[in-house]
Amino acid sequence: MSKLMIVGCGGVASVAIQKCCQNSEVFDEIMIASRTLSKCEALKEKLQPTTKTRISTGAVDANDMRDVSSWIKTWHPDAVLNVALPYQDLTIMDACLDAGVHYIDTANYEAEDTEDPRWRAIYEERCKRLGFTAYFDYSWQWAYQDKFKEAGLTALLGSGFDPGVTSVFAAYAQKHYFDEIHTIDILDCNGGDHGYPFATNFNPELNLREVSAPGSYWEDGKWIEIPAMSIKREYDFPQVGKKDMYLLHHEEIESLAKNIPGVKRIRFFMTFGQSYLTHMKCLENVGMLRTDPVNFRGQKIVPIQFLKELLPDPASLGPRTVGKTNIGCIFTGVKDGKEKSIYIYNVCDHQECYKELGSQAVSYTTGVPAMIGSMLVVNGQWQKPGVYNVEEFDPDPFMEALNRWGLPWVVCENPKLVD
Ligand code: NDP
User: Fold this and answer.
1) Ligand 1, from 190, 202, 268: best to mutate by most atoms within 8 Å of Cβ?
2) CA 168 – CA 394 distance, rounded (Å)
3) Predicted pLDDT at 285
4) Is the CB of residue 6 less than 8 Å from the CB of residue 370?
């Protein structure tokens, strides 16, 4: 029996909240705490008659550590699940420390204002030191290790699908299939079609920041950065078919490079259709992906934030998206002196997700593991004082829970490898 405070009420949160409500034995009380109270109340009204979980709501400003902390102190949850935005990771972690509760999230810290000189100086030093230029990295959150340890609290980072399930797949492969993993290729395929010329499957601002950034991969102990979308491969995805995929920088590469001993190369590929890429390039060329404020008729606006307001809300894509996602990892390495390779993946059908929870598969595949990570923290199976990525815990209970809560996975031996 536990109480979970969930910060955010967008596409991913809506799935995590509904999955907590299906899991009332673990979550007997939840609080939906987000910026727009009416969204929290509407979800409560829809769900409360269908669940034994008692639902409370609250309007919280997650940019304000004191506001989050005072909600925690008033409501006394066992843990906070952060499914708001990565911009708020640090304030919510500070609030958890201040109020003495565990912390779970699905995305690592990213600065909202990339022109802030204090952040910029640290960022530029990191770009030089590590060799990748993405705006997000784990250093900010890993720096909380001692604070969480001393407080006897757990911070679980990256409990979505990628990062999240893909990293648990790596821990599972390490535990059950390999003596040493040498290469990891994470393949994220969305074979879904929403019928719009251009839309993103999760928060457009974050999605476009991620996808338009230079790509990078980890090889022989260092990062190799490449121009955005300059490495392309074709892969024949089980249950989806042949798709073009492009090498991207992605956050779990950073933590897996640290936590999977002996790994020599880690790459991340995501599929994109030509229409998406053409729109994105055009938006980038005209300056609509800029993250710094510009003056517009005496008012400061950030182009990418304005663009977000124009694009379809990812939470509204559910009814119109058809097709499947296939997300997983191909591992190569050695076991008992012999070379081997396996592919662990999940296939998720957009319309099945919509029928069950009213969401498309990208929100579904992120919200389910967010609930599972929260469950393992609050029930004590994944509690360890400090700040940890999901692959640092025993993968077995998480893998079992994926099968039970809607994301069954497959292990395939000797898969076709990516060149
Ligand atoms: P949405 O934009 O749909 O939802 C974000 C929610 O956070 C909204 O309800 C928003 O409120 C709320 N919010 C924003 N700012 C604040 C604030 N200052 N205080 C309180 N609430 C706030 O995003 P998604 O659901 O698509 O994504 C949620 C998270 O999931 C992101 O961090 C994203 O990076 C992560 N993600 C992780 C994936 C993974 O596999 N690991 C995959 C996809 C997403 P309002 O309703 O008022 O706008």
Assistant:
1) 202
2) 9
3) 95
4) no
Instruction: Choose the residue to mutate in 36, 106, 389 for probing ligand 1, maximizing ligand atoms within 8 Å of C-beta.
Output: 106
**Residue 80 in 3-state DSSP?**
strand
Mind listing the pLDDT tens digit for each residue in 335-374?
Answer: 999 999 999 999 999 999 999 999 999 999 999 999 999 9
Give 197's contacts (C-beta < 8 A, 6+ positions apart).
275, 279
Rounded CA separation 304/302 (Å): 6
> Which SS3 state, helix, strand or coil, does residue 207 take?
helix
> Ligand 1 centroid to 202 CA: how many Å?
8
Identify the three-state secondary structure at position 257.
helix
Amino acid 377 reads V
> For residue 325, what are the CA distances in angstroms to 208, 256, 347, 410?
19, 23, 6, 14
Instruction: Find the angle CA(325)-CA(329)-CA(334) to the nearest 5 degrees.
Output: 160
- Of 103, 107, 145, 112, nearest to 6 by C-alpha is 103
Which amino acid would we find at residue 69? Answer: S
Query: For the chain, what percentages of helix, strand and coil (3-state, to nearest 5) are there?
Result: 40, 30, 30
The CA-CA-CA angle for residues 218, 362, 307, to 5°, reads: 85
Q: State phi, psi for 291 to the nearest 5 degrees.
A: -105, 0
Residues 6 or more apart in contact with residue 48 via CB below 8 angstroms:
55
- Strand 180-190 and strand 324-335: the pairing is antiparallel
**pTM of the entire predicted model:** 0.96
Backbone angles phi, psi at 105, to 5 degrees: -145, -175
Which residues of the chain are under the pLDDT cut of 70? none
Nearest residue to 199 (alpha-carbon basis) of 40, 11, 407, 369: 11
Neighbours of 306 (CB within 10 A): 14
Q: Whose CA is nearest to atom 41 of ligand 1?
A: 160
Q: Tell me if 386 sits within 8 A of 150, measured CB to CB.
A: no
Half-sphere exposure of 201 (CA within 13 A, CB side): 27
Note whether 369 and 348 are within 8 A (CB): no
In 3D space, the residue among 347, 51, 325 whose CA is nearest the CA of residue 189 turns out to be 325
Question: Which stretch of DSSP H or E encloses residue 299?
Answer: strand 299-301
Distance 406 CA to ligand 1 centre (A): 21
Coil, strand or helix: which one is 135? coil
